[in-house]
Amino acid sequence: MLAFIVSRLLQSVAVMLAVSFLCFVLFNFVGDPVSNMVGQEATAADREEMRTELGLEDSVGMQFLRFLVNAAHGNFGKSYRLARPVSDLIVERMPATLELVAAAALLALAMGIPLGVLTALRRNTIDSQAVMTFSLAGVAMPTFVIGILLIYVFSVECKTWAPAVGLPGDWCFPSFGRGETEKIGGWTTGLLTASGLKAIVLPAVTLSLFQMTLVLRLVRSQMLEVLRTDYIKFARARGLTNRAVHFRHALKNTLLPVITVIGIQVGGLIAFSIITETVFQWPGMGQLFIQSVQFADIPVMAAYLVMVSLIFVTINFFVDLLYAAIDPRLRLDRAQVGTAGG
Amino acid sequence: MADTTALARFRDSDIWWSFRRSPTTVVAAVVTVLFFMGAIFAPWVAPYNPFDVKSLNLMDAFTPPAWNSGGSAAHLLGTDNQGRDVLSAILYGTRVSLMIGLAAIVLSVTTGVLLGLLAGFRGGWVEAIIMRLADIQLTVPAILIALTLDGVARAALPKHVHDEIAIWVLVISIGVAYWPQFARVTRATTLAEKHKDYVNAARIIGVPGARIALAHVLPNAWGPVLVIATIELALAVIAEASLSYLGVGMPATQPSLGTLIRIGNAFLFSGEWWIVIFPVFALVILSLSVNILGDWLRDALNPKLR
Predict the structure, then answer these.
(1) A342 and B143 in contact (C-beta within 8 Å)?
(2) Is the separation of the CB atoms in B279 and B261 below 8 Å?
(3) Cα–Cα distance measured from residue B287 to residue B154, given in angstroms and rounded to the nearest whole number
(4) What pLDDT was estimated at residue A331?
(5) Alpha helices in B13-158 (DSSP H)
(6) Which residues of chain B have a CB within 8 Å of the CB of A145?
(7) Is the distance from CB of A14 to CB of A322 less than 8 angstroms?
(8) Which three-class secondary structure state does DSSP give residue B11?
(9) Domain boundaries in chain B?
(10) What angle (nearest 5°) sits at the alpha carbon of residue B54, between those of residues B49 and B60?
(11) A156, B269: Cβ pair inside 8 Å?
C-alpha cells in the first residue's frame, strides 16, 4: 500500500509539474509579456529595463524554477487587464465559485441518488421511464441552454405567470448576480441572506443538472447489477422486507463507486461553473477566467489553470487512495475504470 | 448485382431490425438527416441569405414569428435586431456548427486511432506515455482544454487574423480535447488482435508493420470507434456552441448556433424571445437526436448490452 501511495504521489507531482511548465511556457512565450505590460509610448530602453526586471534574460531553466517558486508562494504576477496581483483576484472570487459548486454537488446527490434508486426498483413503470427520458435531456442539453431556459421561465416570464397561479409577484428568481453578501473574515458568503439564497437557486440547478443525471444513471446501473447478485437473493430468502433488502443491502453496496465518481466530478463542476457563471453573471473564478481568455490575460489564465489542476490532482489522488483502500483489486490500475467527462 | 445483395444482407441484419423496432431511434434518425440536409443545402433551402447585408432591411427588425400578432409570413420564425431572418440564420448557423463538429471529430478520430494503434503495437514506454497522457486528459473536462487552447491562440495571433481563422482554432481546440477515448478503444482492440493468426501470417509473408496496423487490425476497431464518434459528435457540437456562447468561438460575422444564442440572449429580457429560443431549440433537438442515435448504435453493435 505504501508503494502504491508513493507512486501515485509521484505521478500527481509529475502532472502538476507538467501543467506548471505549460503555464510557464504560456506565460513567457505566447505574445510578448513586455509589450503586454508597458504602454505604447515606452522607449526601447524602458523595454530593456523591464526585460531585466522580469528576469527574461535568464536561462529558461532558471526562469521556470523562479516561476515554480513564485507559484508555490501564490505569486502569479499582475493581471494585464486589471493591473492587480492575480492572487488577490483569485482569492476574492473563490468563495463565490466554491459556494456554487458545493450547492450544485449537494443538489446532484440529493436528487440523483433517490431518483436512481427509484428507476432501478421500478424499472418498467411510466414514472421511471419519464425520469430516464428527462435524464437523457440532461445529458443532451448544454449547460448554458439550461441556464437560459431557467432564466426565461423563472425570471422573465415568471412575472406573467406567477400572479396567475396565485404566487406573489416577488416570488420570481433573480437572473444574475449573487444577491446580498456578507463578509466573514476573508470569505464573502451569499448563503446568510435571503436574497443571496434566492440568487443561488437557478445557477446551482443549472450547474447540477448534468452531474445529477450522471449520478442517476450510475446509481441505477449499479443498483440493477447489485440486485442480481446472490447475496441479495439470499437476503430475500431469509425473508427480509423489501425495504431492508433494497436500502440496507443493495444501496450501501451501490454507493462506493458513486462516491468516488462524485469526487472526480467535483472537478467537472468547477470547470462547468465557467459557463454557469457567465450565464448568470456570477462573480466567481470561472467568470474571471473567461474574461481573461477574451482579453488574452495570460497571468490570470495561468494562475487559474494551475489552481484548477491542483484541485483536480488532489481530488484524483484521494479518489485513487479511496479506491485502493476499498477494493484491493484496483490497486493495480484504475485506468480500466472509465472516467466520464463532458 | 453486388448492390442488391448488399442491400438484402442489410435488410436481414440485426442492425436494421433493431433500428426498425425503436420508434425513438427512427424519429431521431429522420431529424438528424433533416438537420444535415438543411445544413448542406442551406444556401438553397434558406429563404434569405443572412450574410447579404444588402438584403437586410432594418424596417423588418424585431418581427415576431408568423403566428404572433405583428408577425408576417415572409419571416416564419421572425427576425432579429438587424432584420435578419431567424430561420435562415439558424440554417446557416447549423451549417457552421455541424461543419466544426464533424471536422473536430475527424481530427480526434485520426489522432486517437493513430496513437492507439501506435500504443498497442509498440508497447513499452511509447504506450506508457500515450496512455498516461490520455488518462490525465480524461480527468480534465474537454471544455476547459478547448478554452485554454482558444485563449492561447487569441494571445498568439492578432485579432483580425484570429477572427478569420476562428473556425480552425475551434476545430483544433475541440478536436484535441476528444482524442483519448478513441486512443483507448483502438489500443484495446489492437492488444486483442495483434497476436491472432492472421496478423502473424501477414507478418510472416513480410507485410510492413504500418500496413498490418492500418489494413488488417484497424478494421476491427471501426465498430466501437463509430459509436464513440457519434456520441462525441453531439458533444463536439455542444462544445462549439458553449465556446461561441462564451464569446470565444465564432465571431458574429459568421455565426454558429452558439453565437446566435449569445447574440439573442440580450433580447430575452426585452421580450423578443424568438431571437434566442429558436436557435436554442435547434441546438437541443440536434444534440438530442445525435445522442439517441449514438445510444442506439452502441446497443445495436454490442449485443451483450441488450
Answers:
(1) yes
(2) yes
(3) 28
(4) 54
(5) 14-21, 23-40, 42-45, 86-122, 124-139, 142-156
(6) 261, 280, 283-284
(7) no
(8) helix
(9) 25-305
(10) 80
(11) yes
Asked if B261 is an interface residue toward chain A (Cβ–Cβ < 8 A), one would say yes
Scanning A281-320 for CB atoms below 8 A from B yields 289-290, 292-294, 296, 298, 301, 305, 308-309, 312, 316
Cell of A306: 494551475
Domains within chain A, CATH numbers bracketed: 90-341 (1.10.3720.10)
Residues of chain A with pLDDT under 50: 333-342
d(CA B75, CA B64) in angstroms, rounded, equals 8
Regarding the domain delimited by B25-305, which CATH topology (the fold level of the hierarchy) does it fall under? MetI-like fold (1.10.3720)
Geometric angle at alpha carbon B63, from B61 and B66, rounded to 5°: 155
| Greatest CA separation for chain B | 77
CA dist B244 to A304, B108, B166, Å? 21, 20, 10
Side chain identity at B63, as an amino acid letter? T
Cα–Cα distances (Å) from B15 to A155, B10, B32, B304, in that order, read 46, 8, 18, 14
Task: Please give, rounded to a whole number of angstroms, the shortest distance from the CA of A268 to a CA of chain B.
Answer: 6
CA of B20: how far to CAs of B12, B244, B291, B300, in Å?
A: 12, 37, 17, 11
**Is the pTM higher than 0.90?**
no
- The amino acid at residue A207 is L
The full length of chain B comes to 306
The span from the first CA to the last CA of chain B, in angstroms, equals 34
Q: Decide: A286 and A144 in contact? Cβ < 8 Å.
A: no
User: Scanning the structure block, which residue is given the C-alpha cell 432584420?
Assistant: B83
Q: Under an 8 A CB cutoff, do A275 and B292 touch?
A: no
CA distances from B102 to A267, B191, B198, B224 (A): 27, 28, 33, 17
CA distance A187 to A92: 8
* pLDDT tens per residue, range A245-295: 887 778 777 777 777 777 777 777 888 888 999 999 999 898 898 888 877
Query: What is the Cα–Cα distance from B206 to A17, expressed in whole angstroms?
Result: 44
